[in-house]
Amino acid sequence: MTSIDLHTFSRKEAEMVLNIQLKNLPSDASEVVIIHGYHSGTSLRTYVRTIYTHPRIRSKINSANPGETVFVLRR
């Protein structure tokens, strides 16, 4: 499974990275794990889970790990 690590990024940087990475994922990719962390604050987690949108995202799954979110992708 593919993952995108957003540790140390600002919200704006994270948005740019997510847009580029999601655009460049293979069309047959079905899920991607977003690693946003939570020990240094929850602003990235909140952004990824509730605010960020992209045409490839079909749904979001809050992982059992509070530092990760899974994006289920459209094909």
Describe the structure.
The chain has 75 residues and is α+β, with helices and mostly antiparallel strands. The chain has a single domain, classed as 2-Layer Sandwich (Ribosomal Protein S8, Chain: A, domain 1). Helix content is 31%, strand content 28%. The chain contains 2 helices and 4 strands, in the order E-H-E-H-E-E. The chain has helices at 11-24, 43-51, and strands at 2-5, 31-35, 57-62, 68-73. It has a 4-stranded mixed β-sheet, covered by helices on one side. Strand 1 (2-5), helix 1 and strand 2 form a beta-alpha-beta unit. The longest helix is centred in the first third of the chain and has 14 residues, at 11-24. The protein starts with a strand and ends with a strand.
